[in-house]
Amino acid sequence: MKSEETTKSYNFIETIVRQDIEDKKYEGRIHTRFPPEPNGYLHIGHAKAILLSSGIAENYNGKFNLRFDDTNPITEDTEYVESIKKDLNWLGANWEDRELYSSDYFQQLYQWAVMLIKKGKAYVCELSAEQINEYRGTPTKSGTESPYRNRNVDENLELFEKMKNGVFPNNSMILRAKIDMCSPNMHMRDPIMYRILHANHHKSGNQWCIYPTYDFTHGQSDYIEGITHSLCTLEFENHRPLYDWYLDQIVEGDYRPRQIEFARLNLNYTVMSKRKLLQLVKEKHVLGWDDPRMPTISGLRRRGYTPEALRIFAEKVGIAKRENIIDIGLLEYSIREDLNKKSQRLMAVLNPLKLVITNYPEGQSEELDAVNNPEDETMGTRKVPFSREIYIEREDFREAAPRKFFRLKPGKEVRLRYAYFVKCNDFVKDENGNITEVHCTYDPASKGGKSPDGRKVKGTLHWVSINHAIKADVRLFDRLFSTENPNIVEDGKTFKDNLNHDSLTVKPCYIEPFVKNAKVLEKFQFERTGYFCLDKNTSENKLVFNRTVTLRDSWKKK
């Protein structure tokens, strides 16, 4: 029999890492990082990247850094910094004391830029953004050199110093690398290294008015931190030659971080662009970054998702080299798989119909034993109050029902979960013909829902005692978007035209009294209804629950 070590399958990144360890590359050490720009909240795609990079470090006795690539003061904010740290903590990514910022390296990056100018490999350019795009050419047409490309070194140094000292206004000058305007890789056609931005930076304040671009910052920050494997998504594959070019200009010796790309996570019925998610927040199409309909990590957490479920999901999706779109049903399957094992069961009625047990003594009540989780016996049991008048789900009773309707109907007997057998004898309608009450008799010998004489009952209903129930609001969520790929739009429309305007329904609900001691974000399975989580905006006077997911994937049937 083969050992687990020899039979385990590794993704292509792990294969590279393991080979590097075997070859004693980087002296056998492993050091990864997650480098978010603090210009928005993280989404589930970032969760996959976090779990990959931190998991590689954890599995191979390496180190993991959290580094904020904070090079654009206009879009960045400390709110985003704090939210990102909270998300990584929640996911279990351990960066120890290595909370780092690209802004910590601004002085070193500036010195390297000066060095490139002195080498004749960088120059100050005064072309406008429109002109730069025009001069760059197209993938099939070579670019045109900037008229400022051949400035002498002294002039470039003087102008760059003045840029640093705030002499020039925004967008009037940039520093560009001098590489190759005929390169087939558009990123190598004299890319921008620095731009002028007179803005307050969330960390460095007004110390700088020139800021390095992501491409000039990223690889050098990896180098400064001793990163071995710089893992990023496929859109950066074409940036890799530039990543390596910058390092080759500034680094002496053999050590270089290695950039490796993998396919980003794409979910159907979802947008994963931070720019688009920011639009939804700012234009109030959602209730904020942590709206439970959002694919943000904070939104998923508020909805009731667990870190373990996201790990299950990431493992099922895997690490690939080719882009594809993942069915959101796989994400929902993952949270069901996790919550089914550990969530507390409760009975709750979302669409109540009053049921009166006519032969049960008036004014009497009793407590019955209910199982907390049949998947885990160690979770024990709880007491559920029972009385003459209870609520059942309206859909569980039909006046005229087909033969295979196994719930309650006139003359039919069903089991009340954990309680008794009841048989429908009558019902009451209002003046509009709506059923308002169902009258039943119960069999006292069937306590606990057990058959006293071996007779079989197919239907089992959940219920709550009217006099003991806790009233709450439940939020029922549907897809935030109505189309499978909301990014595909017709002329004149935007992704927002694909929003599902029925994605949120709020309705009252009646829950057994065990729930009154629930804590914020505590998860429950409301039996036969779904998994729910106590929302952060709850109070003693009004409990609010978010439905995490239904018990089965039923949305496709709509």
Structure report:
This protein is α/β, with parallel strands linked by helices and 558 residues long. It has three domains: 23-262, Rossmann fold, CATH 3.40.50.620; 274-343 and 472-557, Ribosomal Protein L25, Chain P; 348-462, Beta Barrel (Ribosomal Protein L25, Chain P). 26% of the residues lie in helices and 23% in strands. The protein is built from 13 helices and 25 strands. It has helices at residues 4-7, 12-22, 44-59, 78-91, 106-118, 129-136, 153-164, 214-225, 240-250, 274-282, 297-303, 307-317, 328-342; strands spanning 31-34, 63-68, 99-101, 122-125, 174-177, 192-196, 210-212, 229-233, 258-262, 344-346, 348-349, 352-357, 365-371, 381-387, 389-393, 413-416, 421-429, 435-443, 460-461, 464-465, 470-477, 504-511, 523-526, 530-534, 543-549. Strand 23 (523-526) and strand 24 form a beta hairpin. The longest helix is centred in the first third of the chain and has 16 residues, at 44-59. The model has no long low-confidence stretch (mean pLDDT 95).
